[in-house]
Specification:
Distance between the termini: 31 Å
Number of strands: 0
Number of domains: 2
Structural class: mainly alpha
Largest sheet: none
Shape: globular
Helix content: 40-55%
Order of helices and strands: HHHHHHHHHHHHHHHHHHH
Length: 379
Amino acid sequence: MRIATFFHSSLLRACVFVSAFLNAGMLAPGLVPSLAQDASPSRHAPYQFRETALRQIPDYDVLSLAFPPNLWLLSIEPRNAYLAKISQDPLPLQHLRLLLGLGEYIHETSTENLHAYFDSPPGALAPDVLIALNAAGFSNRARVMTAAIAAFGPDYPVENRKRADFFSKSFLRIQEGIVPDLSKPPTALEIELQELGKQFLGKVQFRADVEAYAARDPVIAAALQQAREQLPDDQRLSFLQDRLLPGPSGFGAAAVIQQQIEQMPPSYRTVYVLTLLVGELFNGGMHQFFSNSSGAFAPYAAKALRDVGKDDAATTVDQAIGLFPTPYPISTEERRRVAFAHDWNAWDDKLDALTNAIDGEDIQKALTVYARQQDILPR
């Protein structure tokens, strides 16, 4: 099966640092995260489909798609090489990429943001990010970033191996075979970063600030307008897929699951269930698709494949459904009880082997065409 390439840069590729896995969601080449939902009570809140949030791509996301920070490069090449690549852009766009990269570590409420940033490869860019913050007029965040950089001492360690010494459980030197002692208590610097992180919250505000910066900088404003006009369909679909997730829960009673998924207009439902299918196929195969909450939507996935003209793949999903008791157990709890509560055996092998009959990349291409024909690609 060919490797998926459709998830946009927020799902970072080629990362070989374990710290990046833990802190920023970076992924090794070809790895796609499982899209399975958890079974916590919050996932059982009634699902409401809202189309208004799907029709227009916010400026921040257009910029992220058109000028991705590509932080994964810092896992395979030195800081200077990364800076040389982005230096091909005009200076305002260089600053923009640095800000968008920082934005991947800013959360609405978590105080782990600065700790995670500095204890990962992108932390090598901290002095450059500080320049970008000042250039954009983000004075409050620049003040906090200045204090965070100063906490490392007079000579900020841009090299990962040197910066790792400031953290008790850093994976920045894992490539050298140096594994941290996870029993160590936090260092003084980590405690300070946690405190500073309290002043660095607010992803919603950060997005708004970046959009305002883009509006008042003529270079970025022009680039944004051009990017929105020229954004390719596969990236528009990628945004739509991200916004559809998480969707209806695959946990709970079958009737509730069906009621929630039926709220989605058919075209959006096709995109949603095929996003689940392809994501799970690339992550763990057909077996994982059915054993995870995504399996609740297997009958819809078969129909969706026919909607996009992938009849052979639909037949394969039908074959997989046929391996389960009749009627098909839509409820994930029930499906796991009747089909997966055993050690791996020949039945599991048979289900998993069906993975090879489906080309997820072809499905994604067909889904792009389908979404364009249905006029549901966001603008």
